[in-house]
């Protein structure tokens, strides 16, 4: 089957390889000439995955029989539009897709339907102080239609917004930005699948982030199970279903991000995709459910096998797993611990390096600076902590002066609530 894939980045690579292994003809769309998915594609077209008209034209010209995307936000809208116009299956309609990819629309839906979220204002480049009245500082500035923590800043006054607004808007096709109240919080991510309108939650993880200067939300790791399930589990289930009902989500993967702080549970943002922290690998480990296979089935056949959703109960799950999304400090890489040495450790379930010897690492600005991932398993929390230490003590990424450039979890241990 001819399959058009939107995005050739590392988050899409497992899907592209799997399609290739099943014998499908892969038509890859990615505006970058040098992308990792290109190696496995039959065709590569340098088209932006945000450009729905161009993608639709390619669908018609190429004779594509299915359209797929997996681990990034914005291509979901493009895929939805192109699928509807060409009669190909996709799990959500464009009107739903825009609500889960555009934060302006998303926030409007939240506000109109009583879905708890932080206070916000929409601003453009020429905004005035009266346009942000009611927002207290510090605040968070972000583009309404981007991904990967691009253009997100924690700002402390009016002048800082002015200083960063151009960079923020450079990541927005709408040239609009969201200014939100900053809410001190722990982040929790919900992964699952909606079938016939019912939200089936497969995992709830603590999303541990780091702040570099005033750039926030850069994810260091996902830890399962979340420490907040005992107190907030019931509320998470109810709110997840309410969001699905409100947005008219009937089918497909869900990836919802919540904030937990002094005011309780608030919704950060929602998406209809597999998470970009390699949840296509960890969800099967956690739940036994092949969520990537379900996404592929829906695109290829117009339906997915959902029977295992009915028999899964997250409350009975006793898995402990941490996805470490590691980063590298600035420097030139002269040595990397061979991946095989880590894969041979009994606690490691998966490893990928995005970096190679000779890379010159720049200061970290957003999630695109990620150097790779390591999936680490334990028998319980203490064992998981021990295993994380073992892995990071073994792994080295050295510069020419033999300095280890890895940003270790211990550098941000105050963020690792599960270490208590």
Would you give an account of this structure?
The chain folds into 4 domains: 2-90, Rossmann fold; 119-181, ATP-grasp fold, A domain (Dna Ligase, domain 1); 186-316, D-amino Acid Aminotransferase, Chain A, domain 1; 320-419, D-amino Acid Aminotransferase, Chain A, domain 1. Helix content is 29%, strand content 28%. The protein has helices spanning 13-21, 52-62, 75-86, 94-99, 103-112, 158-169, 229-246, 279-287, 291-301, 307-310, 339-343, 381-394; strands at 2-6, 25-29, 43-45, 66-68, 120-123, 139-143, 153-155, 177-181, 186-195, 198-212, 215-224, 251-261, 264-271, 320-328, 331-332, 335-336, 348-353, 360-361, 372-378, 397-398, 406-407. β12 and β13 form a beta hairpin. The protein is globular, with a radius of gyration of 21 Å. The mean pLDDT is 93.
Question: What labels would you give this structure?
Answer:
420 residues, alpha+beta, Dna Ligase, domain 1, 4 domains, four-stranded parallel sheet, globular
CATH topology of the largest domain: D-amino Acid Aminotransferase, Chain A, domain 1
The biggest sheet amounts to: 9 strands, antiparallel
Note the total helix count.
Answer: 12
Low confidence ranges: none
What structural category arises from helix and sheet content? alpha+beta
Please bin the fraction of helical residues: 25-40%
CATH superfamily of the largest domain: ATP-grasp fold, B domain
Please, what is the oligomeric state? single chain
Work out the radius of gyration: 21 Å
